[in-house]
Amino acid sequence: MTDADADAVAVAPARTAAVAPGSSPWKGWAAVSAVSLGIFCLITSELLPVGLLTPVGDSLGVSDGTAGLMVTVPGLIAGFCAPLVTVGAGRLDRRLVLCVLIGLMAVANLAAALAPGFAVVLAARLLVGVSVGGFWAIAGGLAVRLVPERHVGRATAVVFGGVPTASVLGVPAGTLLGELGGWRTAFAAVAALGLVTLIALLLLLPALPADRGIRFGELPALLRDNRAVRAGVIVTFLVVTGQFTAYTFVRPILRDVSGIDAEYVSTLLLGYGVAGVAGNFLAGARDPRRTLLVVSAALTAVLALIATLPGAVAGTALLLAWGLGYGGVSVSLQSWMIRAAPRAAEAASSLMVAMFNFAIAAGAFAGGLAVDGLSAPAAPLTGAALMLAAAVTIGTTSASARRRGPAAGIPDHPRRAAEAGRTAGAGRTAGAEVPYKTDG
What we know:
Blueprint: H1 3-7, H2 25-47, H3 53-60, H4 64-67, H5 69-88, H6 94-113, H7 118-139, H8 143-146, H9 152-160, H10 162-181, H11 183-204, H12 218-225, H13 227-247, H14 250-256, H15 265-283, H16 288-308, H17 312-326, H18 329-340, H19 345-373, H20 378-408, H21 414-423
């Protein structure tokens, strides 16, 4: 697939507030960069405890498994808030909504930095969950409104580049700050980053009035009536739960299985994140179903090996392969959902984001049970089993889609799939599926 093809992959048809003809291209890309910074800030905030589980636990007197609730709690709340905020925002300007959510995240991290006990930290993490769920659900489909149509695929990859970049810079930097100045310093730094992000959004993001309000009833209807959306939600659960069952406890895994000293963890997480950025942009130019099939199959092997293969060299190599594979997940899932329901992109995105964050919570919880009840290697082994289930699900649904292809009128090219979403007859529902060919 060429870059031009990739840029035409995920185009929502509703372009009421699209880029104005003759507007300066750099303004659109500056706005895309501001949204990407927002995603980076939020994912850094959500995953910051991954590198600080032991310091926070030791400081506040809780176990590693209990400290893992700092990831579980915001994941659960974000899962609920993705559809709630999307619907509740109604016809509010999306720029205003995104700014409020980033501000809330900054306040939550400041509260965590000043918390006298673990209960207050968890309460602050609730607010982080609200911010993550609402911001991600709304921001995921904004590229189509910020840049010309031919650049939408690339702009979506830039927006979701904030996810792996949070692993490259955010989580390792937070871990390093925690080691140098204490975990409270790390949370305070993320609060400051939130303030910077808020200023960037205010300065660079244009007014984004809602195209239309979304009703709660549209969300279950979209799941019920659109097979591709339903499959995407299931795959999201399996892949992301598998990922965070293992990744939440990457520090004890590297320590107990690979024999890597704690002082090197932040450096290794930096390498993981660099590989993740590469994976994100590689996946942004490819068919999402095929990419997710390859990624889930590869991560099945990687997680099984990192749980059983001792040695620092093996652990380092597997961690880098892990980052490369998982880096393509977020943008691929977003592209899947927009392709599946191009005329209900915000609703489909909210469903994916809800399940994504529920899966983060489920993975962190399952990993905590595995680590506390069995051992550190049990977490990646459980994750490998879930990745295998995801690969089987993707393969099965892709084969089913190919069998339905001729009868369903599946476009034989991604560009024509996007065009089908824009030109479909008025008699179809807003969330009607526009199937696409799954083998490129």
